[in-house]
Write the structure tokens for this entry.
Amino acid sequence: MSDELSAQATPTDQGYEGALRPATLDEFVGQAKVRKQMGLLLNAAAMRNHTPDHILLAGPPGLGKTTLSMIVAAEVGKPLHQTSGPAIQHAGDLAAVLSALTPGEVLFIDEIHRMARSAEEMLYLAMEDFKVDIMVGKGAGATSVPLELAPFTLVGATTRAGLLPNPLRDRFGFTAHLEFYSDDELTSVVTRASGLLGFEVSETGLEEIARRSRGTPRIANRLLRRVRDYSLVHDTPGDTAAVRAALALYDVDDHGLDRLDREVLRAVVERFEGGPVGLSTLAVSVGEEAETIEAVVEPFLVRAGLLTRTPRGRVATRLGWEHIGLRPV
Ligand SMILES: Nc1ncnc2c1ncn2[C@@H]1O[C@H](COP(=O)(O)OP(=O)(O)OP(=O)(O)O)[C@@H](O)[C@H]1O
């Protein structure tokens, strides 16, 4: 990028995802029940001058878990310390993170279901009593030393709440289940984002983007940025025609299915005669991780009424067959 351009371009100009992130609960679109529950918990803690209770945020990717963790830190006016389950592979890793926390700091652990078991058990005591037992020395001479921690608020995020052991899940004072967003909510998301980007899009164009964003704000903002690129390169206004042309270029169909969604649905219909088919068999047939299919693709296909999950496996619905252009056998 040329120097003068890089000097002028701000993160918002660049349209980086983070630059569009809501900074307060008021700016956070949708999830009305979660916002009310979270607002109550934060206000009550502030009135008591206490650190808020620990919060678990569960839901598919891109629905606002990281955003909410940042909002919690902003609302309590304390620093946010971010890490992730995969980065905590030993109890020592967690002890280092916890002992560095200052009073009232918010600790965000993304993908908390992927933390090492030894660290998980250390977290139980830390969450409940703000202390950890550190093993000092090795072998017969090893001793356990209690370490007092500063009071903190843990915000855990997971796309697989079912994988969390009960002792960990039970220690969260509040669990928020983030749902997919409605088309109207996503229209608000992209209306706000287009204003931040200074990119004017017609109302019907914004509604079209929202309708094809798989119920997910991250995707809505990403599609908006692609339409913005298309509009710039082709020197065309952000109207419905530009939206449709840009989304066609990026293989997003009328219902918001992307290439992988269609591949999975087509595999169930054509290779497994509509199902039932098991998750691992389906994952192998499309060359994807089972976790991606289960956490990203399926929740959307099920919500769109194209696929159902049965005890015997995944089954395509009549709508699913028709979406592929076939009739159920
Ligand atoms: N409720 C919302 N209102 C407006 N924008 C939102 C909302 N939720 C998410 N976004 C936008 O979507 C982007 C992705 O959200 P975020 O990173 O919080 O998702 P996530 O659930 O943490 O995803 P992952 O599980 O992949 O970490 C944010 O940068 C933000 O711009």
